[in-house]
Amino acid sequence: MKPPLVDRINRVVLAVVGIIVAAAGIAIVLHSSGALGRDRAGSPVVSSPTAAWYADNGSWLWPTVGVVGLVVIGLCVWWISAQLRTRGTERLELGRSQEGALSVSVSHLEDCIERDATEYDEIRRARAKVSVEDDVVLVALTLSVGPPYDVARAIARVTGTVLPHLAVTLDEPNPKTIRTTITVEAAEAAMTRLQ
Q1: To which H or E segment does residue 139 belong?
Q2: Transmembrane region positions (predicted)?
């Protein structure tokens, strides 16, 4: 699970890009359809004075555009690599003393939560995502529940056993606050997405 700040930035950037692309598309459709006037529908997108200005200032304009483009490409590569960074080495520190530090791999903790949840027949599959913000452990758990689709029982089993097991794991020597989000879906819906 990515931190909420990263998710928020992703949503804002995608919304801004979407609005710009949608506005450009609407402007092009209005221009070409004649909605902005019949004379404009037949005119070129770039007028002669604008084309002349580009030609007169090309010695500095196009290298500047190229440098800005390279900066944007660099930022895009950096942002994508931040999104795709593997989490296998991410660790959750459980405690620290003079002898050393006690920590657990986040991916291992996710595997343990998933295995613990699927011990029950009604829970066919479980996906867990764990992240840490300050001293709060955020757990997003998605459960795929099979027949007879007793959602209340599945959640009761998870909150009654799986989460207390996690709390015991994270309790010593420095207790951690755990915030959990549980999503329940039908097992058939999950299988449909996998096919």
Answers
A1: strand 136-145
A2: 12-30, 60-81
The sign one gets for the Cα dihedral 161, 163, 169, 174 is negative
- Rounded to whole angstroms, the Cα distance separating 13 from 78 reads 14
Instruction: Tally the residues of the chain.
Output: 195
* CA distances for 47 relative to 26, 33, 57, angstroms: 20, 18, 16
Residue 149: closest CA among 95, 97, 188, 102 = 188
Distance CA 114, CA 2 (A): 18
Q: Which domains, ranges and CATH numbers included, belong to the chain?
A: 4-84 (no CATH), 103-194 (3.30.300.20)
Block means of pLDDT (10 residues each) for the chain, 195 residues, are 65 90 90 77 73 86 93 87 62 72 80 88 87 82 85 87 84 75 76 42
3-state SS, residue 144 = strand
pLDDT for position 58: 85
Is the bond into 173 cis (omega within 30 degrees of 0)? Answer: yes
Q: What angle do CA 141, 144, 148 make, to 5 degrees?
A: 135
Within 10 Å of residue 187's Cβ, how many Cβ atoms?
Answer: 17
Q: Using an 8 Å Cβ cutoff, are 154 and 111 in contact?
A: no
Beta bridge partners of 123: 145
How much is the pLDDT for 21?
94
